[in-house]
Structures are given as C-alpha cells and as structure tokens.
Amino acid sequence: MNIIHLKYPHQLNQLDQTAAYSLAVGFFDGVHKGHQAVIKTAIDKAQELKIESAVMTFDPHPSIVLGGRKEKVFYITPLQQKLDILNDLGVDNVFVVQFTSDFAKLSPEDFIQYFIRDLNVKHVTAGFDFSFGNFGKGNMETMKELSNGDYGVTIVDKLSDDAEKISSTRIRQYLQDGDMESAAKLLGRAFEVPGIVVHGDKRGRTIGFPTANIQAIEGSFIPATGVYAVRILVQNKWYDGVCNVGYKPTFKNPDDRQLSIEVHILDFNKNIYGEEVQVGWYKRLRSEQKFDGIDALKAQIEKDKEEAILYFKHLS
C-alpha cells in the first residue's frame, strides 16, 4: 500500500499523475463497519473501472484546527493504526492530507480542483454526511453538481444496527462505559490499543502476577477504568490476558492520578521490555476497587484470571 502525505498547497505538484483513482474520502476514525462499507464500495468501483483504489483521510482531527481545542483529542484509531487497518482491507493507496488553517479555508470548488481533479480521481465515494470546503459548505450533492462529467460519485447511505446509525460517536461512548462487546459489534473487530512495554513498579511480580506495563501510543482512546479480559499481540503472536486499567488504589496515594495499563499475560514468561504490542479489549470483568490488603487483592486477581480463561474458552 502506498502512503502519500499531502499538504496544501506545497506538496500537490510533486505527485505522479499517471495513476487514476477510485477514491473513498472521509476522516474514518475507528474504520468501523460504516466506514468499511464506503471503502469497500470504492475498492469495488476501482476493480470495475480497472484503476487503483485510494482512501483520503486527514490529520490531525479537524476539531483541533477549527475548534481551537486546548484539550487533547483521543483517537479510536491513531493514524498508524488506521493505516494498518486500511492495508488489511486491501486499499492500494492512502492520501493523508494535513489538516491546516489554509486547507480549512478552501472553497468546495478549490477542494475539488486540487484534491479530486488534480489527483486524477475518476470516482469519488463517501458517506451521506461527508462535508468539505470552508465551513463544510460542500457536501456529496455538491460533489456531483461540480463534477462536469470529470468523475463519478457514489454516496453511501448510513449503516445502522438495531439501535441507530453506526458512528464513531457511539463507539466512543461504549468505550467510556467499558462496553467492549458493543464497541466490537460496530467496529467489526475487538477494539485495540497500540503501545510499548515499559518498566513499571514491578509490584505484580512480587504477588505472583507479573504484568506488562503498557504505555499507549500518544492520542489513543483508553476505555473506562476497570479489569478486562484482553488479548495482547507480542512478537506477532496473540496471547490471552487480564488487564487492569486505572490508578491502582490499593497501593497508590489517592492524589497520584497516573493512569496505568497493566496486562497479566496468561502462560507467558518472556522479558518483553521495549516491545511494540497491541492490546485487544474483549470484556470488562469488573470495576477497579481498593482492597484491604495483599491477600484480598491476590484472591480477586485469581478470580479475574479464571473468569478471563472461561470467557476466551467460550469465545473460541
């Protein structure tokens, strides 16, 4: 998969214009089932027209530029993870457009000129609610009206489940609630957080439950605090585990609000400091709680471990 980073207006003239594209366009945070329907439509159209498939996404999140947000924005899929998923979906090319103030000021007509016509896009696919151009004045009907026959347009209607539209907003709410199973239904896969194994306080080892301390990739959305049945990808192999995400109230001063993600990996005894990993979150077993002492904590962790083993046994 080719990844092309674009910034308006500087890098647009450096492109190889020989390829023609069927383009899916959107922010696609989470690459959930609704997004996948848009991307699959673009891939199918590419095969029909015998041209290359492409996805256009944006970085950073538009709200950082448009809303002047001072708080951090947390992504369901940080950029590299999004690119990995797009690769798995079979996309040929990804255009990552840097979302800047200048880019945000483009008129819908200029957006189409620079990012559709000048890129030799022959077909554009997006969701029904995709907007573009200054103040989001352009929508997919605008995209059709301004085409002059230079490119085709497909508008993908909303994808719903029993409740309502499948959306990144709903997924975020499920993650905030710790409802990993509902999030997975909308994503089409378990929610995953990429990270790196770092040194922690090593207290788990002293009580017989060694843990991998995970430092999540900057900008990752971390689910609600609690204890979860998880799977962790280490050195290209998935292992079952139990994860505690929270503030370790049994040991910590209540004023110390440093969030930690610790995974006790089942049937595992390697030293993996510095390894890049992925944590797949499957089920929240319980909320985080403070215990009276080490023995009570150990007994509960043993219960959590057994519950996770049982969960994955029934899952497979």
TrEMBL record:
One of its GO terms (molecular function) is riboflavin kinase activity. The keyword Cytoplasm does not apply. Keywords: ATP-binding, FAD, Flavoprotein, FMN, Kinase, Multifunctional enzyme, Nucleotide-binding, Nucleotidyltransferase, Transferase. SMART domains: Flavokinase. The keyword Phosphoprotein does not apply. Its EC number is 2.7.1.26, 2.7.7.2. Belongs to the ribF family. This is Riboflavin biosynthesis protein. The gene is ribF.
